[in-house]
Amino acid sequence: GQNIDQPTEMTATEGAIVQINCTYQTSGFNGLFWYQQHAGEAPTFLSYNVLDGLEEKGRFSSFLSRSKGYSYLLLKELQMKDSASYLCAVMDSNYQLIWGAGTKLIIKP
Amino acid sequence: GAVVSQHPSRVICKSGTSVKIECRSLDFQATTMFWYRQFPKQSLMLMATSNEGSKATYEQGVEKDKFLINHASLTLSTLTVTSAHPEDSSFYICSARVPESNYGYTFGSGTRLTVV
Questions:
Q1: Record: contact A45-B44, CB cut-off 8 A
Q2: What would the DSSP string read from start to end of A44-91?
Q3: Cβ contact A101:A74 at 8 Å
Q4: Could you give the CA distance from residue A66 to residue B27 in angstroms, rounded to a whole number?
Q5: What is the mean pLDDT of residues B38-59?
């Protein structure tokens, strides 16, 4: 079966750095997405990785290792507005998105 | 950027009635629209995939006669929840693949449906 695993909840301090991990087992691989979702709102796109390595975009970076079926989202200089759920999603061989359950990130002052 | 407009954002309806949710792609043509349902503290669950001009493809366990999907044009897809029950109360979100882009999928703003 297809499976995406990520921690249910994480807590971090304002101004600090946090890494949210995602492991996956899917039927094929056509890229991995990270989305941010605030409570009661639709997800918004953060990053897309299809090749191994680190993609940096401002305070957010995303890493992919296809051989390990592993990705992480790195958030630097945390701000209170970063409190949200972070969803990992993998596009399988049928170009269908398989979603993780999301990681709720709580930022404390 | 590519935008999908979803309406209504919130709706409360009585049991047994029907509710229609609309998703419009504003600045691109969405040949395919994905409809998701999300229960509290759970991930997005794909309900169905609608293709312009053809029948929608429903995921296993989703009743096609209860969740009617119409994708009559390249910019409009609708989901109608028929004979709604309280257990249909959920957050419904549509999504479309952004063509010629690595930005993946753009989402509508979601519809919070409450059936009383």
A1: no
A2: EEEEEE-SSEEEEETTEEEEEETTTTEEEEEE-S--GGG-EEEEEEEE
A3: no
A4: 34
A5: 88
Within chain A, which residues score under 70 in pLDDT? none
- CA–CA dist B56, B70 (Å, integer): 8
pLDDT of residue A77: 97
Q: Do A96 and B46 touch (CB under 8 A)?
A: yes
Of residues B6, B43, B91, nearest to A102 (C-beta): B43
pLDDT at A2: 82
Residues 6 or more apart whose CB falls under 8 angstroms from that of A17 comprise A74, A75, A76, A77, A78
User: Strand A97-99 to strand A84-91: parallel, antiparallel, or no bridges (unpaired)?
Assistant: antiparallel
Mean pLDDT of the region B85-92: 95
